[in-house]
């Protein structure tokens, strides 16, 4: 029967794809622009939106730096400059009371929440910003800050 | 205007209706699963929209079934056979517009070099990359439609149902969409940001092509074109058979065959001067409306014998 042979053929393709992906799962997902490799055992360039950073943000940066065995190096500036630098890969992380509903979401990627912040009369999740599409780096950041939320 | 449908066809139509209800059920589960795994992947979004759109043909089929056999009335003296054709055109239009939009979306993501971000999630204490969940959701989204598609196709051929056929065809081709989506996600996994947009582009191209082909088939029917094959824009062989047979019975006449839904209607017309002259038309209608009457036909209950060379007038 045509339909049977067709679905078995399809299953074989699917199995091949899945096996292949599982074999290489250790390096998946990877960073298209290689942020993880650049930061590892090197310098973590952090854009700070406020100075000095408050305790929660500072703790998050320390944890991330430790995971990559990197030395944090701070850059300060206005949000637009820092996010533009993040987009270009000149800095690796932007911190400083960033809410999860930041209007910059179309240009940057956000980490998991690491606490909360008061904005006016409501609270929002506090997050870190990383470069878009650097999925391996983002996952390492998420794992580093895991447990910061009480 | 009720029409006797053989019990065999009627049974197949009922079975098709049952399959379409099942399709709607499975599609709803797929749409829900895909929605929760969608994240910010372009290919996932495109595949999700395609799955949402594929709800349309089953719904249209069931609606058309409901209306098709309604008896003719004063307002619709020819009955409702073509309700399916209308639905088909609407569905084809929606499909085409959506395909175009998704293709634009994928192309602009490619040009703007948007890097899709897919993070990790914690499910039941497990920290997994959301990409793997997307692959699982896409795999699930392939299985029911492919099976249902293969079950619906023979029914569509037997009942000459265009909506059902398109639906079955789209279902059966769903594995391509799913596989393209999976390839896109795995591509992102390996750090190829463009894989996702490329996969989305391929899927949307497929949607657009389906839509355009369906529009051509629908237009042919709504413009009283000759009946077409289900899977192409070629003229159906029934046209030749009917024309040959009818010409034998009505020498000196032409045969026009058209399609209303799954049914076929043949007209036998004088080969020359089939149109009503305005003088004749004036006998029937008031002066200022007479020009609108171009032809007058008569339905036959019994066919004349082909052997006796009768000069029966059809006008």
UniProtKB/TrEMBL annotation, chain B:
GO MF assignments: monoatomic cation transmembrane transporter activity
Coiled-coil annotated spans: none
InterPro entries listed in its UniProt record: Cation_efflux_TM, Cation_efflux_TMD_sf, CDF_Transporter
Transmembrane segments: 21-40, 46-64, 85-104, 129-148
Keyword Endoplasmic reticulum in record: no
Subcellular location per the Swiss-Prot or TrEMBL entry: Membrane
Membrane topology field: Multi-pass membrane protein
Domain Cation efflux protein transmembrane: 26-223
Pfam family, one: Cation_efflux
Cellular component GO terms, alphabetical: membrane
Entry-linked Gene3D superfamilies: Cation efflux protein transmembrane domain (1.20.1510.10)
Swiss-Prot/TrEMBL keywords: Membrane, Transmembrane, Transmembrane helix, Transport
Protein name listed in UniProt: Cobalt transporter
Originating species: Pelagivirga sediminicola
């Amino acid at each position: 029967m045509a339909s049977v042979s067709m679905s078995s053929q399809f299953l074989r393709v699917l199995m091949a794809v899945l096996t292949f992906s599982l074999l290489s799962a250790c390096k998946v997902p990877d960073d298209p622009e290689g942020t993880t490799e650049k930061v590892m055992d090197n310098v973590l360039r952090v854009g700070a939106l406020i100075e000095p950073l408050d305790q929660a943000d500072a703790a998050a940066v320390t944890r991330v730096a430790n995971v990559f065995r990197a030395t944090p190096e701070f850059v300060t500036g206005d949000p637009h400059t820092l996010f533009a630098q993040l987009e270009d890969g000149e800095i690796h992380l932007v911190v400083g009371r960033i809410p999860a509903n930041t209007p910059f979401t179309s240009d940057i990627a956000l980490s998991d929440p690491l606490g909360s912040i008061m904005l006016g009369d409501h609270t929002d999740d506090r997050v870190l910003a990383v470069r878009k599409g650097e999925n391996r780096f983002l996952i390492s950041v998420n794992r580093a800050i895991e447990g910061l939320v009480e | 205007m009720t029409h006797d449908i053989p019990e065999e066809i009627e049974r197949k139509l009922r079975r098709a209706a049952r399959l379409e209800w099942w399709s709607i059920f499975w599609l709803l589960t797929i749409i829900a699963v895909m929605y929760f795994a969608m994240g910010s992947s372009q290919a996932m979004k495109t595949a999700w929209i395609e799955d949402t759109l594929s709800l349309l043909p089953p719904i249209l089929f069931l609606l058309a079934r409901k209306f098709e056999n309604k008896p003719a009335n004063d307002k619709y003296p020819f009955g409702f056979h073509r309700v399916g054709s209308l639905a088909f055109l609407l569905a084809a239009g929606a499909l085409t517009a959506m395909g175009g939009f998704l293709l634009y979306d994928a192309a602009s993501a490619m040009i703007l070099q948007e890097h899709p971000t897919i993070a990790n999630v914690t499910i039941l204490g497990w920290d997994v990359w959301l990409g793997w969940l997307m692959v699982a959701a896409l795999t699930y989204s392939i299985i029911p439609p492919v099976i249902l598609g293969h079950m619906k196709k023979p029914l569509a051929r037997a009942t000459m149902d265009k909506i059902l056929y398109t639906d079955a065809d789209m279902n059966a081709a769903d594995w391509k969409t799913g596989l393209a989506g999976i390839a896109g996600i795995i591509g992102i996994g390996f750090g190829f940001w463009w894989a996702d947009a490329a996969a989305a582009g391929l899927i949307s191209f497929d949607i657009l092509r389906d839509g355009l082909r369906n529009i051509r088939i629908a237009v042919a029917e709504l413009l009283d074109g000759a009946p077409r094959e289900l899977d192409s824009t070629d003229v159906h062989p029934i046209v030749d058979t009917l024309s040959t047979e009818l010409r034998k019975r009505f020498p000196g006449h032409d045969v026009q065959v058209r399609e209303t839904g799954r049914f076929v209607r043949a007209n036998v017309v004088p080969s020359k001067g089939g149109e009503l002259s305005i003088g004749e038309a004036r006998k029937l209608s008031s002066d200022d409306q007479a020009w609108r009457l171009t032809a007058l036909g008569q339905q036959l209950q019994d066919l004349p014998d082909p052997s006796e060379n009768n000069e029966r007038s059809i006008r």
